[in-house]
Amino acid sequence: MQIDLLLFFGLLFIVAFLYSSVGHGGASGYLALMAIFAISPLIMKPTALLLNLFVSSVSFIQFYRGGHFRWKTFWPFAAASIPMSFIGGTMAIESAVYKKILGVLLLIPVIRFFFFKDAGPDERKTPNIPLSLAIGSIIGLLSGMIGIGGGIILSPVLLLLKWTDQKQAAAISAAFIFVNSVAGLGGQLVKGFVFSPDMLTYVGVAFLGGLCGAYFGALKFPQTVLKNVLAVVLALAAYKLLFTHA
Q1: In a 3-state reduction of DSSP, which class is residue 149?
Q2: Rounded-to-integer distance, Cα 119 and Cα 114, Å
Q3: Report field, pTM of the whole predicted structure over 0.90
Q4: Highest mean pLDDT among 34-48, 67-81, 105-119
């Protein structure tokens, strides 16, 4: 049991490091990890959202310091997603269905990291506000339902539409994850959720991993290797959730 706990915390640190290095809070990774270690779904959602708050805030600060945040692109997504994330946070999903949806969502960043190239400055397009509002509302609802911040969905959308480069997408996603996690937790509070006595330890480990990952991802390391490693990890987690009894 002690070895399992140490392994869990070690993997939690690595997940937080990898996610924050590319501008994500890591909720989808935390959820996959908790599912694999058989942690109760009643604890999974609020714990993942709580971890998101700390890791995404650290990630955002580092990418903001690097000059990558774009408010005009961010605000329509956030304005539409926040109320929908709150509503999603009040919804309950059957455990088996929940894990399958999470497995599918984990495939989104895998596709993004392997197949979406960074658009050059001459390829960039001006963001469309009505489309941003529509996309934000859909992502917000899914985020609240599953217990993620939505960054794993928003980032590939920004790159696919050629509205940002990789690091701008990371900065915007980090802020988006934070506000959605707050809203999702609000919905969980209204519904009522279980506080785990281990949550503070989880937060401490994830915060440390996120701090290291955000620093190196935003300011030091080229992101290609980090993205490929994270993509492989997420693909394995998605497989386990979709095709095994995780």
Answers
A1: coil
A2: 14
A3: no
A4: 67-81
Work out the pLDDT band at 1, boundaries 50, 70, 90.
very low
pLDDT exceeds cutoff 70 at 239: yes
Give the 3-state secondary structure of residue 15: helix
Count CA within 13 A, CB hemisphere, residue 119: 19
Burial of 51 (0-12, 13-18, 19+ CB in 10 A): buried
CA distance 55 to 22: 12
- What does the CA dihedral 18, 19, 23, 25 come to, rounded to 10 degrees? -150
**How far is it, in rounded angstroms, from Cα 18 to Cα 210?**
8
Return the sign of the alpha-carbon dihedral for residues 158, 139, 79, 190. Answer: negative
Whole-number pLDDT of residue 133:
96
Give the integer Cα–Cα distance in Å for 134 and 231.
Answer: 27
